[in-house]
Design brief:
The chain has 2 helices and 11 strands; from the N terminus they run αββββαβββββββ. It has 2 domains: about 40 residues; about 170 residues, Lipid/polyisoprenoid-binding, YceI-like (Lipocalin, Beta Barrel).
């Protein structure tokens, strides 16, 4: 019994060793395939942050003015002839409103929609800008200008004018600042201002990007 066991032990050990090598090689193959696939896709992306600002108050003069502010994050994708900026604003995933306005502005993760803007947990805001309308700086230099963009929000689209300043840094474009005014009433079902009792939110919302990096081909 002991002799038979001693004869089979090396063979069993060898099989285990071979199995380990096979698993290791297979795992590395999958990882390399994933890396190669990502490289083949060649997708250029970016990200950054922005601020939201408007006011609320009573009547057309917004008596008793209340500041309405928020901070958000965005991602940007290079889609060939255009850049697409996307922020997942529903349920406060990428938008944080100040002064207790978070839930009734953005809704929540439980699926309860916003009481003000009609958003739900899946709502996103998308800004699309054609590259041909932008000035891309040369290596190490800066450029600025204005460009038309299209906002898609709550299933409707409107046009905005984006003012921007950007710097090239190591093959990437750093957004020094960019801003535009956005009329949210163009995306509301009834086209009216959002109001809570007698207090209404001014239609003009200012979006200001002060921190962003974009990877894009010119």
């Amino acid at each position: 019994m002991n002799i038979k066991h001693s004869v089979n032990a090396p063979a069993l050990s060898g099989k285990r060793s071979m199995l380990r090598r096979f698993v290791t090689v297979a795992t590395m193959g999958v990882l390399m395939l994933g890396v190669a696939s990502a490289a083949a896709d060649g997708k250029k992306e970016g990200k950054g942050s922005y601020s939201v600002a408007t006011i609320a108050g009573v009547g057309d003069g917004y008596t008793g003015k209340l500041d309405v502010k928020g901070d958000g994050k965005f991602k940007v994708q290079d889609e060939g002839d255009k850049l697409v900026f996307i922020s997942h604003v529903g349920a406060g995933k990428e938008l944080n409103m100040k002064d207790g306005r978070q839930k009734h502005t953005c809704g929540d993760d439980k699926g309860e929609g916003s009481k003000i803007a009609g958003m739900n947990k899946d709502t996103k805001v998308k800004l699309t800008i054609e590259k041909s309308k932008l000035t891309f700086p040369e290596a190490g230099k800066e450029a600025s200008g204005t460009a038309p963009g299209k906002i898609n929000f709550l299933g409707k689209e409107s046009t905005v004018t984006v003012k921007y300043s950007v710097k090239e840094d190591g093959g990437k474009f750093v957004i020094k600042n960019a801003s535009f005014d956005f009329d949210y009433t163009k995306h509301m079902g009834d086209g009216k201002k959002v109001c809570l009792m007698l207090v209404c939110v001014r239609p003009t919302v200012n979006i200001n990007i002060s921190n962003g990096v974009v990877e894009a081909s010119k």
